[in-house]
Write a structure and sequence with these properties.
This protein is an alpha+beta fold. Helix content is 27%, strand content 21%. 5% of the residues are buried.
């Protein structure tokens, strides 16, 4: 090879330039991006150009910014236009503005999964100087699935699910501690969404009449606060279950009584040892939908008042 270089000095220069360019691209694209004083880098091509940035390194890429201004944080700006670099055109409604897309290698035959998770934003109108509305979304792939699904969206209407009536907020083994709101929830009550509409059976109301309201304190609150733990007023789910069972009724056939169980889950750590998912034991939990419990209580009281009124009228008529 040394004889080829001596005979072709131009090739030596080309080889050196290629090496330097490769090293510079690796350094500016990943390891010390913010330490470079060069201007912005435009990516104008397709996959071939983008793949030039696919450098495999041992440590994570980072962006560092040094500034005394409170509003000057490190960041990555993703910009989208239609058209070309020479003649950019306005973004249209529905265009993806940019995002962070993640994929994991699954096998030698199929390689990396295609964008199995993503954080991205898209236009909500045709862009003009006066209007450039957008929404952001989070998408993930279900266990055992292969297609990314949008789970959450954030837009001018606030935070909402990726589809109607598809996802819960939390689950039986991963609960939120408290919900703060100005007003109560709005539940679907449209007659067009219901069938088999009929009076509440007396057997249900009779069973409900055997349910006692109680005061209680939560075990974890007492463990944390001792005697300062507060009292609560409500119902005991197992007592509701048993009140119906004594009368030969399945309380779980009524939406007010809920039961959930879950499998054990091992702790999952990232490469730095930080906890990605906490360990949990297998377990189960009974619960109640208090809005339906209160509706049942109101129906029971209405029936009892009606019966008392009828008896009172009968007594008055006999005088």
């Amino acid at each position: 090879m040394k004889y080829m270089f001596l005979a072709n000095p131009a090739k030596v220069i080309d080889w050196a330039r290629t090496l330097v360019d490769s090293l510079n691209r690796r350094e500016s694209a990943f390891g010390s991006m913010a330490d470079q004083s060069a201007g912005a880098v435009d990516i104008t091509g397709g996959n071939a150009v983008f793949n030039n940035f696919g450098i495999v390194i041992a440590n994570d890429p980072y962006v560092a910014r040094y500034s005394n201004a409170a509003s000057s944080g490190a960041g990555v700006l993703l910009r989208r236009a239609r058209g070309s670099v020479a003649a950019p055109a306005a973004v249209l409604n529905g265009d993806i503005l940019g995002g962070i897309y993640m994929a994991g290698f699954n096998s030698a035959s199929s390689g990396f999964g295609v964008n199995t998770a993503a954080f991205y934003a898209y236009a909500m109108e045709d862009y003009t100087a006066a209007g450039h509305g957008s929404e952001a979304a989070v998408g993930t792939t279900s266990i055992g699935g292969s297609g990314r699904i949008t789970r959450v969206r954030i837009g001018q209407d606030g935070l909402y699910p990726g589809g109607n009536n598809l996802y819960p907020l939390g689950n039986a083994s991963a609960r939120w501690t408290q919900l703060y709101a100005v007003s109560g929830t709005i539940n679907t009550s449209d007659a067009r969404s219901k069938q088999d509409i009929e009076p509440i059976p007396d057997a249900w109301l009779d069973a409900w009449g055997d349910v006692d309201w109680r005061r209680y304190r939560f075990i974890d609150a007492v463990q944390a606060k001792g005697e300062d733990a507060r009292w609560h007023i409500g119902l005991i789910a197992q007592a509701v279950r048993d009140a119906f069972a004594v009368r030969g009724l399945d309380g779980q056939a009524i939406g007010l009584l809920c039961y959930d169980e879950w499998d054990a889950q091992a702790e999952k750590l990232d490469t730095d040892g930080s906890v990605l998912r906490e360990a949990r034991d297998a377990g189960d939990r009974w619960g109640l939908r208090y809005d339906e419990c209160q509706a049942m209580e109101a129906a029971w009281q209405r029936r009892e008042l009606a019966r008392l009124s009828d008896r009172l009228q009968a007594l008055e008529a006999g005088l």
